[in-house]
Amino acid sequence: MQGIVATRDAFRNVRRIVRRQLTIVRRRLDRQMTAMVAIRIIILFCLTMPYLSYRMYTFNYPNLPSKPMEYARGRLIYVILFFLFNLNYTISFYIYVILSSRFRRQVKSILLKKYWQLQNCFSCGIKNNRISPENPESFNTNMDPNEND
User: Fold this and answer.
1) DSSP secondary structure of the chain
2) Is residue 135 included in any domain, yes or no?
3) Membrane-crossing residues (predicted)?
């Protein structure tokens, strides 16, 4: 019951934001944030429920290794659902890149800045970042203490 009331209050707050005298940019950003959160919740539910359902099923009906084909099928299903479950932790980045033009600009500028610096390092000849002696012939590289040259 509390979940329904909270959802209704959130919906009212979003509608109240639209009615208030806010700047157009602020309204657009609020709508964008609401869309991102709503899509994130839907994706969280869609990617978590299959994994949790399968875990409950395997808890009630264990998949024993005595039947190799069924065990292999069960492990394959588990690995696929586990992958989807862990995709929840990376999906936010892609949601923000798809829905937010502001976030896209920031990611683009950061990536371009990083790769531009790498490009400049390679173009100016800095490929080997090691310290080496100026005259390597003057140093004895023989590590054997018994041998004197």
Assistant:
1) -HHHHHHHHHHHHHHHHHHS---HHHHHHHHHHHHHHHHHHHHHHHHHHHHHHHHHHHHHS---TTSHHHHHHHHHHHHHHHHHHHTHHHHHHHHHHHH-HHHHHHHHHHHHHHHHHHHHHHHTT--------S-GGGS-----TT---
2) no
3) 37-57, 77-99
